[in-house]
Every structure is written in C-alpha cells, then in structure tokens.
Specification:
Blueprint (H helix, E strand, L loop, with lengths): L1 H31 L4 H14 L4 H13 L3 H14 L5 H12 L3 H14 L5 H13 L3 H14 L4 H17 L3 H14 L4 H13 L3 H14 L4 H13 L3 H13 L3 H10 L2
Length: 273
C-alpha cells in the first residue's frame, strides 16, 4: 500500500513539476519576445495552459493583445486576473488602459483608481494615465495632483519624470500659472536636455511673462535640437517683432513658412516685403 502511495505521489509530483517547468519556460519566452506580440501571445497561452491560474501570464498576454488592438481578447485576460488574483492591480490597470484608448475616460479613471487602491506604491504609470484622463475631462487640478503623485512614486526614472514634468507644465501654462509652468519645463529639461518641446513650451511661457529675450533663447535652443521645427521659427519671429526687430522676424517667418508653418506664412505676407 505504501509502495502504491509512493508511486502515485511520484507520478503526481512529476506531472506538477513538468507543468510548472512549462509554465515558467513559456512565461519567460513570452516576455523575451518583446514587441513581437503575436509570438508573445502564443507563449503566454501555453503558459496558461500549463497553469490556468497564472495571473502573470494573463497580464502579459492581455498587454500584448492590447498592443495589437485585440481589445476583446485583452479584456478577457484582464477580467480573468480580477477574478483569480483580486490583489493584483494589473487587471484594473489593463482594463483602464483599454478604456483610455477607446476614449472612455470616466471608466478609465474608475479602473485606475481601483488599481492605485490595490497597490498605492510604484503606481507612477497609473497616476500618469489617470492624470491624462482627467485632462480630457477638464479636471486640471486633479490632473496636476496625479502628475505630482506620479513623480513622487517614481522619482528616479529620468525619462518618466521628464515626460510628467512636461505634462504638468502644459496644464500650468493653460491655467496661466506661467512661473509654475516654467519651473516644470525647466525640470523636464534638466532630466532630458534634448527635450525640444520643453524648450519650445518654456519659451511660450516666458513670452507670456514678457521675458522676450528668454523666450528667444528657448526657441533658438529648440531649433538647434530640431532645425526643422517650423513652429519655433514662427514663434521666435513673433517675439522678435515685439522687440522691434522686424528684419530678423521676417527671416524667421520665411524659414517657418518654407517648413510649412501656416502662421509664419500669414505673418510673412502681412508684415514683410
């Protein structure tokens, strides 16, 4: 009897071990597939077949399906996570991202909020997307709060932080908080010295504060980074005109018009010979 029990136990353990090996193997292969989403989906599916409760594989497969815009398939995976692993925030975050991409911003905010409640730490990306959702709904102060939390939750990722500071600067500029906007754009530039849009937008904020020399400096830097930035030529020309330098303003508008900036074309036609 004991011998029979040992045989049964060995067979069961061996089967479990083989399934576990397959689960780990295909999960890792799926992750290694990276942006080859169809291959990744195939591997994650095999990992799930080995263990139908593998929430990590469901999460990764859902993300891969979402990337190829298979929203129905992705939604099934995220709902499965919510069902089998309610303490994982992946299901709510993934479902929120689908709603965000489908422009259901109210629904996205509800899911992002639930994801943050489950895991308030390391929630930088979720705060960022919730902030963007709030911007589309004109909840600007709520968005600023979320962007701030996004920075706090992930303070050592320069690319992430630069993007968030830039986004918060845009809201502050829109709200006419120009000094705060300049501070945010400056921080974005410190973290990413080639952030061309941050230089351009900081120039706009400086122009609204009538710091025209500072604005010209920022527009010039944006042009140095991207010599084809038509809007920067147009904006720099406008500030030069405000300083009474019409000759150089026209030169900038001519360049901007050549690159396709419609405002430059208009200003060139109305102000220059």
């Amino acid at each position: 009897m004991r011998k029979l029990f040992n045989i049964i136990f060995f067979i069961s353990f061996t089967s479990f071990s083989q399934d576990y090996d397959k689960e780990v193997k295909y999960t890792l292969l799926g992750i290694a597939a990276g942006t080859n989403y169809y291959e990744a989906i195939s591997h994650f599916t095999k990992a799930i077949e080995a263990n139908p409760y593998n929430s990590s594989a469901y999460c990764h497969r859902g993300d891969s399906r979402r990337k190829i815009k298979d929203y129905d398939g992705a939604m099934e995976d995220y709902l499965q996570i919510i069902d089998v692993s309610p303490n994982s925030n992946c299901g709510y975050m993934g479902r929120g991202l689908i709603k965000f991409e489908l422009e259901n911003y109210e629904g996205a905010i509800l899911d992002f909020t639930k994801a943050i409640e489950i895991q308030p730490r390391n929630a930088a990306t979720i705060y960022f997307y919730r902030g963007m959702s709030k911007v589309t709904l004109n909840d600007y102060y709520g968005a600023i709060a979320d962007y701030t939390n996004s920075i706090i939750n992930k303070p050592y990722d320069d690319d992430h932080d630069s993007t968030v500071y830039k986004a918060r600067g845009n809201i502050n500029h829109f709200l006419k908080n120009y000094n705060e906007a300049i501070s945010d754009y400056t921080k974005a530039i410190e973290l990413n010295p080639n952030h061309v849009r941050a230089f351009f937008d900081r120039g706009n904020s400086k122009a609204f504060l009538e710091n025209y020399e500072g604005a010209i400096s920022d527009y010039t830097k944006a042009i140095e980074i991207n010599p084809s930035f038509a809007g920067a030529y147009g904006a720099r020309g406008l500030v030069k005109e405000l300083l009474g330098d019409l000759t150089n303003a026209c030169a900038d508008w001519k360049k901007g018009a050549f690159l396709g900036n419609l405002d430059s074309k208009k200003w060139l036609k109305n102000n220059c010979n």
